[in-house]
Write a structure and sequence with these properties.
Blueprint: H1 6-17, E1 42-46, E2 58-63, E3 74-79, E4 84-85, E5 88-94, E6 100-107, E7 116-122, E8 134-138, E9 141-145, E10 149-154, E11 161-166, E12 172-184, E13 197-212, E14 216-227, E15 230-242, E16 247-255, E17 264-275, E18 283-288, E19 294-298, H2 311-319, H3 331-334, E20 345-352, E21 355-361, E22 369-374, E23 380-385, E24 388-394, E25 403-408, E26 414-422, H4 443-453, E27 468-478, H5 484-495, E28 500-502, H6 504-509, H7 525-547, E29 563-564, E30 569-570, H8 586-597, H9 600-613, E31 628-629, E32 641-642, H10 643-646, H11 652-658, H12 661-668, H13 676-679, E33 698-701, H14 704-719, H15 724-739, E34 749-753, E35 758-759, H16 778-788, H17 792-805, H18 809-816, H19 826-840, H20 843-855, E36 868-870, E37 879-881, H21 887-904
Antiparallel strand pairs: 1-7, 1-28, 2-6, 3-4, 3-7, 5-6, 8-9, 9-10, 10-11, 11-12, 12-13, 12-17, 13-14, 14-15, 15-16, 16-27, 17-26, 18-19, 18-23, 20-21, 20-25, 21-22, 23-24, 24-27, 25-26, 29-30, 31-32, 33-34, 34-35, 36-37
Signal peptide: 1-25
Domain PcRGLX/YetA-like N-terminal RIFT barrel: 42-120
Keywords: Signal
């Protein structure tokens, strides 16, 4: 096979680099204008049931049935008492007829204390926030005023947030919000430590306002970390503000563009300066431990002394209140205050998922004193005093270890706080490839390696260049030191940001995501049995995350692929059997499981997976931008870089349920990913005929390849993004030319023209079916597209594929001239039988769907749904196992069960 020309690589990289660098927001700005009354109201509730708590606000998405709510419609939101709550609304997707498909809604602190809301399409806009949110721009600055705090944001330089000031008194609570990066150029392997660090500071390239109220404002800041002439590690930071809030949220993304052999990240953080105005004994440190635990101290403590200042003084300091005038204290204390140490520096380091250590010192140049420790810290702290202070927290603190919180200089005029996303006290971030290639220099050798370790290796492909990671942070500008209950509430908001959601009944009624799910139904013994099995599988993976410690900055959110029953361990170190990287769509299984159940624990599990798989498993820069990496020991290790991993189909549910801008960016960036087929041929190692990518004749599969492209095009089209016209045209032209193939989907692949967006129609029929083709979102994409686009020939082609995959070889041969060969994954494909049965009202197909579901492969009726306890010495940590469970089978069983129940649940065998 001919190598890929360098010119093709450079051309595709240029195309990828020309994609939009800054996100767009449909309907940004003010809430929708009033419109005539529309569809029935929808009830939305908090996922965890705890209300808004101390969070600044919440944003949520709601779908609407096609034709129910006209574009431009207004919305009102009311609590259980019928009182209207200020809400900001914007559309996130439209149906083809122009009606609203998904809307996003933002609420601020005025939603606090309300547990349930009613969202109603309305003729009149709801009330304005009691405290107006304003956004203004001047002199290279953006100023956001929530009515309670005022944030000044830079458009250039190194200070992302110049200041955060409270409006009541004009007190500056924080200044100089900035990004910090520590790099070292080599690693200390052995017992000699010579590695040197250097610091880079985040430098703003551009700052834009994406939303400006009335309830929610969003500012996006993009740039790179710079030192002298070198600028690297691109960042994207979004700041979220809500009307009436004293806090704000940050979503922070970095994309790795260094040399894995030279650019070792030693520390990665977000830093603020906090002015300290109060007497040292009126300055307070609060650092969260586990649960509701806190370290509660003052910079200069007056408790536990040999002389007692008085009970009232001691109580006030512990509670964070201003102390009485020192003249009222016992003068044996007052006269000796200068001899009480001031503790200005604190560090909490979480270097593993299971342990944190807390220490403090008086000032640099002096020794550290242990101040406690524990298992899993919440990642939250406060520094300040009775005249005001700064609370700050990092979400998933211990799950994405190594993390760290620093407070420095609290005894001086200003404290410096740093939230370390990667702790400088940990080992440097090492992204080097994990083996030397072992002589796999040619395709035949690499295929032999695939046949033993299941790893598809290729020199130069195991690179982290272009992978990304997103972190979430929250900050409060407090008027005074918060009380214990307020601090607990703030820490809880960091750990689990409150999320509003519509009920499964409404989600199903709107018929979004192909209408392939229905609310959980235990009305019969057969249905209840499947529900129990689905619950078992979710619980198993949730428990395995904990038991096997699937945590860490780059790893959290993913699960493992296959189990090693001999070692009683997942195959974390065996080639392609290790991290799952979305293989066979566990992301979809989890999201459909949430959509039908409304369970908060399922939502949070799926949320973590979406944050991981969309960032870490996908390239966002470089020649493979737009492609994801197949499963492996490292998330970027395998040489198979494909659409099936980067596909937007895995991100769509989270985006539409939350309106998360970062995930929206990820999907938008994939619109032009058809250009990647110029750079990399997905099946280059197994081709039997010469092939060189040609812009007008690119070999693209109708399964895992096209489904990924179609998901990005559909999302752009229904969001009415900047490339919506192109996306719609690509959808229609590829659907039309797939349907026109002699064997439709069974043809397998076609030659695609990048300029016309069409497949060439083959001159002879070919059978090119793989058991993987439909298992990475194709089922779900086709169901959505058939509902949205009236194209009978496409529908017929898809129904044929659905009907014949699980047919007998004789039936396949009679229809297509030859059978499909030796296939697998019949249980996963039973949902295609179910779809065709529902579309054609075919009882025989429904019966076959259930037969393939219960008795073909996968988890059949022979499955033992039980747990086998494990303990030492055969395992590192006690727990349990189930030897029959694998992630491939789990994902397909879960999707088949959910979709079969929704489509043909009324035709189940007894």
């Amino acid at each position: 096979m001919s190598p890929i020309p360098r010119r093709a690589i450079l051309k595709a990289a240029a195309v990828a680099g020309a994609a939009a660098q800054f996100s767009w927001a449909v309907g940004q700005g003010s809430a929708q204008a009033a419109a005539p009354a529309g569809d029935a109201p929808v009830t939305v509730e908090w996922l965890e049931g705890g209300g808004l708590g101390a969070a600044p606000g919440s944003t949520f998405g709601v779908p609407w049935p096609q034709g129910a709510v006209p574009a431009g419609k207004g919305f009102t939101l009311a609590g259980a008492d019928g009182k209207a709550v200020p809400v900001q609304t914007w559309p996130t997707a439209y149906w083809p007829d122009g009606s609203l498909k998904w809307t996003a809604h933002a609420v601020g602190p005025e939603a606090a204390g309300i547990g349930r809301f009613t969202l109603t399409p309305a003729a009149a806009a709801g009330p304005a926030p009691a405290r107006a949110l304003t956004v203004s721009q001047a002199d290279r600055r953006i100023v956001v005023d929530t009515g309670v705090i005022r944030a000044v944001i830079s458009k250039d330089g190194e200070k992302l947030v110049e200041s955060v000031t409270r409006n009541d008194g004009g007190t500056k609570i924080a200044t100089d919000g900035r990004l910090v990066l520590l790099r070292q150029s080599d690693l200390d392997d052995g017992d000699q430590g010579n590695a040197k660090w250097e610091r880079f500071d985040g430098e703003i390239g551009r700052a834009v306002v994406e939303q400006s109220g009335p309830v929610r404002a969003v500012v996006r800041i993009d740039g790179k970390h710079r030192k002298a002439s070198r600028s690297w590690l691109p960042f994207c930071v979004r700041l979220y503000f809500y009307a009436g809030a004293e806090s704000f949220r940050m979503v922070h993304t970095i994309t790795y563009d260094g040399d894995q052999n030279k650019d070792f990240i030693r520390g990665l953080g977000v830093r603020f300066t906090v002015p300290m105005r109060d007497a040292a004994y009126d300055r307070h440190i609060r650092i969260a431990g586990e649960g509701k635990g806190f370290l509660t101290e003052a910079v200069k403590g007056v408790t536990g002394l040999r002389r007692d200042p008085g009970a009232a003084v001691r109580a006030a300091q512990v509670e964070g209140r201003k102390l009485p005038d020192p003249s009222t204290w016992d003068q044996r204390v007052t006269s000796r205050l200068q001899y009480i140490p001031t503790w200005g520096d604190y560090t909490l380091a979480q270097l593993s998922a299971d342990g944190f250590a807390l220490r403090k010192r008086t000032k640099p140049g002096h020794g550290w004193i242990p101040a406690g420790g524990g298992g899993r810290a919440n990642g939250f702290a406060y520094v300040g005093g009775v005249s005001g202070g700064f609370s700050f927290g990092l979400r998933d603190f211990w799950e994405k270890h190594p993390a760290q919180l620093d407070i420095r200089g609290a005894a001086g005029d200003a404290a410096e706080v740093t939230l370390w996303l990667w702790s400088p006290e940990a080992q440097p971030m090492d992204l080097r490839f994990y083996h030397d290639g072992m002589g796999q220099d040619t395709y035949p050798e690499q295929l032999e390696g695939l046949n033993i370790t299941y790893e598809d290796h290729e020199p130069g492909f195991g690179t982290p260049y272009g992978i990304a990671r997103t972190s979430e942070l929250m900050f409060w500008a407090n008027a005074a030191t918060p009380g214990a209950d307020a601090l607990v509430a703030q820490a809880a908001a960091v750990r689990t940001p409150p999320q509003l959601a519509a009920a499964p009944e409404h989600l199903a009624r709107a018929k979004v995501f192909g209408g392939l799910f229905a609310p959980v139904d235990r009305s019969t013994a057969a249905k209840a049995r499947i529900e129990d099995q689905l619950d078992f599988l979710f619980r198993y993976y949730k428990d395995q995350v904990e038991q096997r410690r699937w945590y860490g900055f780059w790893d959290y959110g993913d699960i493992m692929h296959t189990y090693d029953e001999d070692r009683h361990q997942w195959r974390y170190d065996v080639g392609g059997y290790a991290w799952d990287n979305s293989e066979l769509s566990p992301d979809l299984w989890l999201w459909y499981a949430y959509l039908r159940s409304g369970r908060a624990d399922v939502f949070r599990f799926a949320e973590a997976m979406t944050r991981h798989t969309g960032e870490v498993d996908v390239y966002h820069l470089g020649r493979w931008a737009g492609l994801g990496t197949r499963h492996g020991v490292q998330h970027f290790a395998d040489s198979a870089k494909q659409q099936r991993i980067s596909t937007a189909v895995y991100r769509r549910p989270y985006y539409f349920l939350t309106a998360d801008e970062r995930v929206g960016d990820l999907m938008h960036d994939l619109v032009d990913s058809d250009e990647t087929f110029l750079v990399l041929d997905p099946i280059r190692k197994i081709r039997t005929e010469p092939y060189e990518p040609d812009r007008h004749a690119l070999s693209i599969g109708f399964g895992t390849d096209w489904s990924g492209l179609a998901a990005a095009w559909l999302t752009e089209w229904e969001r009415r993004g900047p490339k919506a016209a192109k996306a719609e045209a690509r959808l229609r032209s590829t659907m039309e030319t797939i349907a026109a193939q002699p064997n439709g989907f069974v043809q397998g692949t076609g030659l695609y023209d990048l300029d016309t967006g069409r497949f060439a129609v083959a001159d002879k029929p070919v059978v090119g079916v793989s058991h993987l083709s439909a298992m990475f979102g194709l089922v779900e994409m086709c169901a959505e597209l058939i509902d949205l686009i009236d194209m009978p020939k496409f529908k017929d082609a898809w129904l044929d594929y659905c009907r014949y995959f699980n047919a007998t070889k004789a039936e396949q041969a009679a229809r297509y001239g030859s059978h499909f060969g030796t296939l697998l994954l019949f249980q996963g494909h039973s949902r295609q039988d179910a779809y065709a049965a529902a579309q054609l009202d075919d009882d025989k197909l429904a019966a076959r769907a259930w037969q393939k579901f219960y008795g073909s492969d996968g988890y059949t009726t022979a499955m033992k749904w039980e747990k086998t306890p494990l303990e030492g010495p055969v395992v590192l940590e006690p727990g349990y196992e189930h030897l029959w469970i694998s992630t491939n089978t789990t994902a397909l069983f879960g999707l088949a069960a959910i979709q079969n129940l929704a489509l043909i649940g009324d035709r189940m065998p007894g």
